[in-house]
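Please fill in the sequence for the structure shown.

STRUCTURE ENCODING:
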């Protein structure tokens, strides 16, 4: 491995945001998950939580190999996943088209945050919505009520990145040193 590549790995890991993640429930289109992985990597999110009815074959072409850099954690149910995330201190922010939903830009994403997105056609399950701390929506001015799943995920993640960058969270290492070293070894081994 070149010194330049080694420095790039250290630079990327130094910006990782372990207190920002996303959970996608019951998604059926692998290209959406692959695109979400790419957005996660772009904003330094290291983990995507996935509740999928069947294993998904992720497209390397769509994800631009982001699956190498973003861990995918698979769960059997929304209840188990969300209880575990809540226990770790994450606020659960559900995307939901409803009267009680607020503009997605209104919340503080510098706090530990997990965005919840549901299946392409039906959205989140009632069980997931019941566990959410906040419901948000992306304002739409046209006739179509919502965006593609991966586009919505990107907007949420980039709003969180904007807030976190303004607060200086990308300027200092957020990963614990042991996790930084573990990932550094893993990523270097993938380069060999």
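FILLED IN BY: designer on duty
SEQUENCE:
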């Amino acid at each position: 491995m070149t010194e330049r590549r080694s420095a790039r790995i250290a630079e990327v890991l130094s910006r990782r945001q372990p207190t920002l993640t996303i959970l996608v429930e019951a998604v059926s289109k692998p290209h959406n998950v692959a695109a979400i992985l790419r957005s996660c990597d772009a904003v330094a999110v290291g983990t995507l939580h996935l509740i999928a009815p069947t294993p998904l074959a992720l497209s390397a072409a769509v994800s631009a190999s982001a699956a190498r850099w973003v861990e995918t954690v698979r769960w059997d149910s929304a209840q188990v996943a969300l209880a575990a995330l809540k226990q770790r201190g994450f606020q659960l922010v559900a995307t939901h088209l409803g009267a009680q939903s607020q503009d997605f830009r209104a919340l503080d994403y510098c706090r530990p945050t997990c965005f919840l997105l549901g299946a392409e056609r039906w959205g989140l399950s009632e069980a997931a919505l019941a566990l959410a701390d906040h419901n948000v929506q992306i304002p739409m001015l046209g006739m179509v009520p919502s965006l593609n799943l991966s586009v919505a995920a990107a907007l949420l993640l980039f709003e969180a990145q904007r807030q976190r960058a303004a607060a200086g969270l990308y300027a200092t290492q957020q990963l614990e040193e042991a996790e930084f070293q573990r990932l550094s070894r893993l990523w270097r081994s993938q380069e060999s």
